[in-house]
Request: fold
Amino acid sequence: MNKTIIVTGGAGFIGANFVLAWVKQGLGTVVNLDKLTYAGNLENLTSLEHNPQHIFVHGDIGDQALVAKLLAEHRPCAVVNFAAESHVDRSIHGPEDFIQTNVVGTFHLLEAVRAYWSHLSTEHQQDFRFLHISTDEVYGSLGKDDAAFTENTAYAPNSPYSASKAASDHLVRAYHHTYGLPTLTTNCSNNYGPYHFPEKLIPLVIHNALVGKPLPIYGNGQQVRDWLYVEDHCAAIRRVLEAGKVGEVYNVGGWNEQANIDVVRTLCRMLDAKSPRADGQSYADQITFVQDRLGHDQRYAIDATKIAKELGWKPVETFESGIEKTVNWYLAHQDWVKNITSGEYRNWVQTHYSERGEELA
Ligand code: NAD
Ligand code: DAU
Reply:
């Protein structure tokens, strides 16, 4: 066995950041299995086009035969599973893809990995890891004064997305408990940074601001998320892969709770300074309160004490430094955004926001 790893969903937001950093740091070869759904974008990986350390494979984690073939061919020391349907609003419009990829797909992936792992030598079995990337949303919603989510918080998923992720977490747990598969699970809070698909709050607001569209705030904008810069999440994943205790769960978060309206106002202030509107007015004038998300979770917050104490990980970026890097990246990569805001993206935005009384396409 060598230092090759298989990453799934490595053409998406977090997966691409992870793959880019892994190769840049010379940590070994990455076989990147991605279905290239609307959220997968090979443009995220153009800098690796001719790099032999990155092998891209177009395919589905639910295709057990394909995964078995990749495992046999590349003999990885780890599989890191990012592949998922990830957008809560899409899960409300159409949950089926979420069940198919996040639950059934993860099951098939686990089956293929279990078959591969069970035939390894004892030494290689001990070294192998299956790392499942999950979310804080599986823990449900917090009240204003509730303590942050720990690894012992009971699961209480509220959306089809979080329910499908919770199901996949349970499968991973069961494969460790029942078959002894050396699994690790990370449950992370909201990420932001480069290559974030502009259907999600931060990149959507930056994009809409610059093209003069409304900045849609669901409900009263007082919902709270715990924001973490994506490179810090990737560093946490590397650390868990390196030193995490088999079978364990690690919560990853930014210690950075913010109400949505405050995040949006910060973005407006930054854009006012860096790329002022032609009419001299503030981008904040574009803020528009729209109909709330169905079943909208009020607050997420991660208690990341365990990973700090046991593995020595903590975020490097503050929200101020991370959001500065993010806004600069989007301003410098307007072509990347333009290439994404394609037909399918426009259809989604049109359908989703017209229900909220906004024409954003
Ligand atoms: P994303 O939607 O940007 O990317 C998902 C990637 O998975 C895409 O490249 C897509 O093509 C691929 N994919 C989807 N279905 C597939 C399938 N059946 N087979 C192979 N590839 C498939 O998602 P993201 O925001 O990068 O999230 C990555 C992972 O991290 C997800 O599991 C998500 O639940 C989790 N997570 C995300 C956040 C966040 O803030 N974005 C926070 C915590 C956890
Ligand atoms: O907490 C981790 C999760 O964070 C991940 O598991 C998900 O994959 C990821 O998409 C993200 O989920 P959220 O629903 O928190 O992220 P989103 O960017 O969609 O929304 C952030 C907050 O902003 C949320 O409270 C809803 C609100 N929002 C979102 C959009 C798209 C708005 O007010 N207006 C919008 O147009």
Residues 8-9, 11-15, 33-37, 39-40, 60-62, 82-84, 86, 101, 105, 133, 135, 165, 188, 190-191, 197 surround nicotinamide-adenine-dinucleotide (ligand 1) (CB under 6 Å).
